[in-house]
Amino acid sequence: MSAFPEGFLWGGATAANQLEGGYQEGGRGLSIADALPGGKDRFKIVSQPDFDWTIDETKYTYPNHVGIDFYHRYKEDIALFAEMGFKCYRFSIAWSRVFPNGDETEPNEAGLKFYDNVIDECLAHDIQPVITISHYELPLDLAKKYGGWKNHYLIEFYERFARTVLTRYADKVKYWMTFNEINSAAHFPVMGQGMVPSTGANDKKNVFQAWHNQFVASAKAVKIARELRKDLHVGCMILYATSYSYDSNPKNQLANLQQNQDFNFFCGDVQVRGEYPAYTKRLLAKYGLTFDDLQITDGELALLKQYPVDYIGFSYYMSMAVETTDRDTSTVAGNLMGGVKNPFLKASDWGWQIDPTGLRIALNELYDRYQKPLFVVENGLGAVDKPDENFYVADDYRIDYLKAHIKAMAGAIADGVDLMGYTPWGCIDLVSASTGEMSKRYGFIYVDLDDQGQGTLDRYRKKSFYWYQDVIKNNGLEK
Ligand code: BGP
């Protein structure tokens, strides 16, 4: 008997701005992602929003403008997903395809038509679409004209966008998520909240105000979904990095508890439990703030309470360790966040510490806390693949990583956790969010495209393609 329940949602995950391309086709407007360069500057911009950066949307022709050209090749790609046996496919809708400037009152029909086609193609292959409404690509005008999510007008614009897509696809799409990695704004307010230098993105007051506005917008999307159909599932999406105290020093233990509260739990606590957790007081005080510094109405708090999400989607790539004393512990990068090196773990080429057991811990922690179904909607190993002369990639390292994480999920299910599905990140190679380059690959499918945008864009099955096909066929790993 498989460790995984019948109907478990095996699949893969992508995001519009990292694979679609066609950035000016079908009336699409520009998004914040179109105005970011690839390479080192990108990292500086997303992680230090006060970095000297001027938006110049005419300057970059690659990577977001081209992606992997899914806009024209979606049929071929979805057929490959079907060949692997995908039960679901997680993707996002580019907001600026549907509302090119973000603040229009009427949607762009050509943009919607593209998603009609993608969804119908999935359904024709018995693949359930899982849609992220907003994944790191606010329409650029909403960042430039309105200052991103700190501006409460965005609630109204998002509500219109969410209503448009939920209404149009309610009969075809059952699984939704409101914002990708909503908590990541703690580190990357540019990508998550559309905050650009002029909006004071490094000012925590703005980040908290933006979060509040996003929480309200998310609750409104849940309300719309509930009114449309009873069987729609709307989840939050959290970037989860299991966090350990470096040692048994009580100071480190306390710091770790607070790290978990502030990063892993804060947004989920609001979106799942429907209210700000008690420790928000401490968290705000850390930045010299109180609730009085934020614009929050009683009506909004009531809405949060009334419309919590019904499942928790989360990404899991790595864990981190917390050390508060002065002991010398060289830091590692970790999903773009800091942390100290854990002597028990190895890391990816980008310094992300590989920790399958941490996933079992994450699943238990989240389920204990919320008692709502969980969905691992991103997981995977970013690696440099070296194809042979036939473009075949023997990616055993990727198989090893995924296998260990699937075992950890099976362990958590045996622990009693309610897990709905698993969609490894970048099931087809795509542009990396942090580097803006192609050379950091996650896919089961190799795409012939390099960091300069050169290549045929042809698709090739990697060794992991056949391995994952077997996993899905067996509903898990063979004994
Ligand atoms: C998550 C994002 C994705 C994705 C992934 C891998 O944080 O939701 O958009 O790209 O991380 O990150 P990267 O592409 O930087 O390796």
From TrEMBL:
EC code: 3.2.1.-
Keyword vocabulary terms for this entry: Glycosidase, Hydrolase
Keyword Hydrolase: yes
Any Pfam family matching the protein: Glyco_hydro_1
PANTHER family recorded: 6-PHOSPHO-BETA-GLUCOSIDASE ASCB-RELATED, GLYCOSYL HYDROLASE
Broad EC category: hydrolase
Highest taxon listed in the record's lineage: Bacteria
Name of this chain's protein: Glycoside hydrolase family 1 protein
Phylogenetic classification of the source organism: Bacteria, Bacillati, Bacillota, Bacilli, Lactobacillales
Annotated family: Belongs to the glycosyl hydrolase 1 family.
Active site per database record: E378 (nucleophile)
One MF term in the entry's GO annotations: hydrolase activity, acting on glycosyl bonds
